[in-house]
Design a protein that fits this description.
The complex is a heterodimer of chains A (172) and B (815). Chain A is α+β, with helices and mostly antiparallel strands and 172 residues long. Chain A is built from seven helices and five strands. Chain B is an alpha/beta fold and 815 residues long. Chain B is built from 24 helices and 33 strands. The chains are: A alpha+beta (172), B alpha/beta (815).
Chain lengths: 172, 815
């Protein structure tokens, strides 16, 4: 797999200084008396914040009486958790065998040319997060891309252009 | 019992024993990397694979598999050896072969196993790891490239230390041991992780490139810091203590040490040690010979009578204290002797002495894990006696012992599973305990009924009234009383020492009353355990290094020095200028006393004021005994010869006794034999781990004095005490402990920080009626609003500038 393209400076993500802990409170209240509640709490937090902010990790550690290190261990073990803010629209480009053969690499390049972010990166305005995935399981539609839950089969460079235009026009 | 066969040897073991432990019992060694006898079985390394006849077809990990009746185990068959070789080859794919420059070389379990299994080639190759080495702290180096992911560090930090600083982060090939957000290590630096690391991934930095472990002479000793009485092994080379060496079989604590014990040894060979006696000439301290110095001291002491006084540190051996007491009381003729500022030992020397009939704790540290309930009063035991903290931790986590805490601040203890914290207003502990006793009496929960005097004295301490005073609800008080009474075995812990002015005789009486009423004395897993501050605090009480008939206590000795009634003052190892309350007064006293002799390892703030300074030995250089806080009497032997011209205080006071015409005992053994408290202990029979001095309890219900006064809220109060990394002022000469905690600070609650606009690290000015001090603020989740805490060890910003000895000091705060 090709290495992610280096992030340019304007894409550095500013992590919010003020994180509203009352959102975490609500999630914790929901699960606080259930044994083994760390996973659902973290999943709820990820859903509600879009990622797991650092101050929330410390807060959950204090509320659930779990070591912050342990939470970090769980967060880094599962690919589903994100420690940095994510874009509103998650673009996934399939790099599986069928897609690869049918030019997935060009699709990736086209996306990069337009939104200037590589694998795992998020645009400065937090509109897009770009991810390369091993297989989306729809090889018949190769080359394949997804934006959030929307699937785009038989991808072409033109379609990349259209997708970026379409989502850039949507409100943030 | 379960009977099984291991390598053709029959062995009978307890049910639930693992194959690994059974084999150990049978004398069969199974190689292991991830197992530690102190930790729960983990099964990470797969080195301990064995064949079991009844479980054919796969290899069985010995460390996690319990034995079954008739099991036939073979630990060293060709398939087993083949599997182990593969495990080692796999580990060595990534483990760097930098053994020549690795401090673990020669002491490395991976190296030894690779040698044993002749792994001279590897069928597998891959690129080595390129993890950055963590040099961010001065004590522990973390080199993840060498890590084999056995997880012992992660587990010991959780299971025993309860800090949880380390964890497995990431997944698969990227897995490594790290901290939260993969930052630098930020913890208590007890080094437990270092001690159990089988390879060179975690190393003690102060020992780096100092010596190969096998080139060290290992000398066992007793730690010279707090009263826990941990055994330590000192690694000595060229007459220098270079490190402490971990021995998992050492002491009741299985080699577990805290940051002071493990890393605080550097004061022994510190450059700052006094090498020769000093005499003041023309207002300058100049080097002198021992003869000059001692004859000057002898002249001053001769016939001085009650114009002379001595303050001694409870870091001296029992025998040294015995000799100094003899010198002062017999040869000089003064009863003015004391230690720990007088109040520092009153909880035991007065409180327990009256309540239990013996000036000592009834329980021992070993009772903690055997108990059903621990009641910890006003103690941050993790900070003052960290290894006792580990015991509490294991009791609560592994044995399900209930933990009740009475404290004026939240702490690590209150985060233990099931811990119940009663957060009281400072100075109201005795009221709270009295109310608990009252509930026990009222609800007929007592085993021994209360005396009419006690019962009527406690009448005013209803839980409802106490709630107003203490800030703890009446229900909490009642449920504590019920829980304590219901426990079959219960231990009460509290701290006593220089820095705990509130832990006084009244607190001891109140605590003892609970134990007496609840029938919790004189049986295993039960009783009272006063955690005393210094390594020989109990010894100083046993020897009787307290004011004799008509003698002055420490604070009066200092008053006398100021007014001129005390003309010659001998201070042995104490550093009152920094550690006693009311610095200005102390300094005035020491300035005005005619003749001041200080015997110390260092030119302390107090020694700088002396007329004669005598350089004396550290615990690593002398012979004698220390008595731990739970009456454990242990012998020490010199690990190194005296540093410079320093002499053991045994020798110093022997000579002074001779010079004053007395006949000193010849050896520490003879001195020991003359200490009545130890009459049933034979000096020569004291082995490692020592012996508990025996006591006879004569419990008496004493009415503890306490003010039922609701304190005016709204003012800020300052508490003082000990910080984890230090013990007294001696640890400030240990580079290791100093490196992680080098400056004075004051802890502030989060809400107060917001209210006062204080950020972490800001300089804040605290003003009391005694003075002003500037300290760095630490915003801390454990502090209660309105209460500040500042440790007392630091000379450059010594808290006794504003602290005059009361339990709490009213302060105003400004940025």
């Amino acid at each position: 797999m090709t290495e992610a393209v280096a992030v340019t400076e304007n894409q550095e993500i500013e992590v919010e200084a003020e994180v509203d802990l009352s959102i975490a409170d609500k999630v914790i209240e929901r699960y606080k008396d259930i044994p083994g509640n760390l996973m659902p709490v973290l999943q709820g937090i990820q859903d509600d914040y879009g990622y797991v902010p650092r101050v929330v990790v410390d807060y959950v550690a204090e509320r659930l009486n779990v070591y912050p290190s342990q939470i970090y261990g769980v967060l880094t073990f599962y690919a589903q958790f994100h420690l940095k803010p994510r874009g509103k629209y998650i673009i996934r480009v399939c790099m599986g065998t069928a897609c690869h053969v049918l030019g997935a690499e060009r699709i990736r390049e086209s996306f990069y040319d337009r939104i200037k972010i590589g694998h795992g990166e998020t645009s400065g305005d937090r509109r897009f997060t770009f991810e390369l995935v091993a297989c989306l399981g729809a090889c018949g539609m190769a080359p394949l891309a997804m934006v959030n839950d929307e699937t785009y089969g038989k991808m072409t460079v033109q379609k990349v252009e259209e997708i970026v235009k379409e989502y850039s026009a949507l409100p943030l | 019992m379960v009977t099984l066969t291991i390598d053709d040897k029959q062995v009978a073991v307890e049910k639930d024993t693992t194959i690994y432990d059974a084999a150990k019992k049978a004398g069969v060694v199974i190689p292991i990397l991830c197992h530690d006898k102190k930790l729960k079985p983990f099964g990470a390394c797969r080195m301990c694979l064995v064949e079991v006849e009844q479980m054919k077809g796969r290899l069985i990990p010995a460390c996690t598999t319990p034995v079954t009746e008739g099991m036939i185990v073979r630990t060293s068959t060709p398939p087993v050896n083949k599997a182990r070789k593969l495990v080692l080859e796999l580990l060595l794919v990534h483990h760097p072969l930098d053994c020549p420059v690795c401090d673990k070389g020669g002491d490395c379990e991976l190296q030894n196993l690779a040698y044993d299994y002749k792994i001279n080639t590897n069928r597998l190759t891959d690129e080595k790891f390129h993890h950055e080495i963590d040099y961010n702290n001065p004590l522990i180096e973390r080199d993840q490239n060498r890590c084999i992911l056995c997880g012992k560090c992660v587990r010991i930090c959780d299971e025993i230390v309860s800090r949880g600083a380390l964890t497995f982060i990431n997944r698969g090939i990227k897995t490594k041991i790290g901290t939260e957000f993969d930052g630098p290590l930020s913890c208590e630096f007890c080094g437990s992780c270092v001690s159990v690391c089988p390879v060179g991934a975690l190393l003690p930095r102060p020992f780096k490139f100092k010596s190969r472990i096998w080139a060290l002479t290992k000398k066992t000793s007793v730690c010279g810091y707090c009263g826990t009485g941990c055994n330590v092994t000192l690694g000595v080379k060229d007459n220098k203590v270079l490190t402490t060496v971990y021995d998992e079989n050492q002491g009741f604590h299985n080699g577990q040490l805290c940051v002071r014990g493990r890393f605080g040894y550097q004061f022994i060979n510190s450059e700052k040690r006094l090498k020769t006696p000093l005499i003041r000439k023309n207002d300058q301290l100049v080097e002198a010979t021992w003869d000059e110095a001692l004859s000057l001291v002898a002249q001053r002491l001769k016939g001085a009578g009650s114009a002379a006084a001595a303050l001694a540190t409870p870091r001296m051996t029992n025998e040294e204290l015995f000799l100094l007491k003899q010198l002062m009381t017999v040869q000089v003729g003064s009863q003015n002797i004391d230690h720990s500022a007088g109040y520092g030992h009153s909880a035991v020397s007065e409180g327990l002495a009256k309540s239990l009939g013996v000036a000592a704790s009834s329980a021992t540290i070993l009772d903690i894990q055997k108990s059903d309930l621990i009641l910890a009063i006003k103690t941050d035991v993790y900070e003052t006696h960290p290894v006792v903290g580990f015991e509490i931790n294991m009791a609560v986590k592994n044995k399900g012992v209930a933990l009740q805490i009475i404290s004026d601040k939240k702490g690590k203890l209150s985060r233990l599973p099931g811990a119940n914290l009663l957060l009281n207003k400072p100075t109201t502990e005795v009221v709270l305990l009295n109310a608990v006793a009252k509930v026990m009496i009222d609800e007929n929960l007592t085993i021994t009924s209360a005396t009419p005097e006690l019962a009527s004295a406690l009448n005013e301490f209803t839980p409802e009234k106490a709630a107003l005073v203490t800030g703890v609800t009446a229900d909490e008080i009642k449920s504590l009383a019920r829980a304590y009474a219901a426990a079959d075995k219960a231990v009460i812990l509290f701290t006593a020492g220089l820095s705990y002015p509130g832990a006084d005789a009244q607190l001891a009486h109140a605590a003892a009353n609970l134990a007496i009423l609840g029938g919790k004395l004189g049986k295993e897993g039960s009783g009272i355990l006063a955690l005393q501050e210094k390594n020989n605090s109990q010894g100083a009480i046993d020897v009787g290094f307290v004011p004799g008939q008509g003698g002055l206590d420490a604070l009066r000795i200092l008053e006398g020095s100021a007014t001129g009634t005390i003309k010659t003052l001998l201070i042995a190892g104490e550093n009152p200028v920094v550690s006693y309350p009311a610095k200005a007064k102390i300094q005035k006293a020491l300035d005005s006393v005619e003749f001041l002799v200080v015997a110390d390892l260092f030119l302390t703030e107090t020694a700088q004021l002396a007329d004669v300074v005598l350089p004396v030995c550290s615990y690593a250089e002398k012979v004698g005994t220390f008595t731990a806080t739970d009456r454990r009497v242990q012998r020490i032997n010199p690990a190194i010869p005296p540093v410079g011209q320093s002499r053991s205080e045994f020798k110093v006071y022997s000579e002074l006794i001779s010079m004053l015409g007395g006949q000193p005992v010849a050896t520490p053994a003879e001195a020991f034999a003359q200490i009545p408290a130890y009459s049933d202990i034979k000096y020569n029979e004291l082995a490692e781990g020592g012996t508990f001095s025996s006591i006879t309890l004569q419990p008496v219900q004493i009415v503890p004095k306490a003010n039922m006064v609701v304190s005016d809220s709204g003012n800020y109060v300052l508490l003082t005490g000990a910080a984890l990394y230090h013990c007294g002022t001696m640890s400030l000469y240990g580079e290791g402990t100093l490196a992680v905690s080098s400056e004075a600070y004051v802890e502030v609650s989060r809400a107060d920080a917001v209210k006062l606009k204080i950020n972490d690290g800001d300089q804040v000015k605290l003003t009391s009626t005694d003075g002003v001090i500037e300290l760095k603020a630490r915003v801390s989740p454990r502090m209660v609003d309105g209460v500040f805490f500042a440790p007392y060890h630091f000379a450059d910003a010594s808290i006794n500038t504003i602290w005059s000895g009361s339990t709490v000091t009213s302060v105003t705060v400004a940025k």
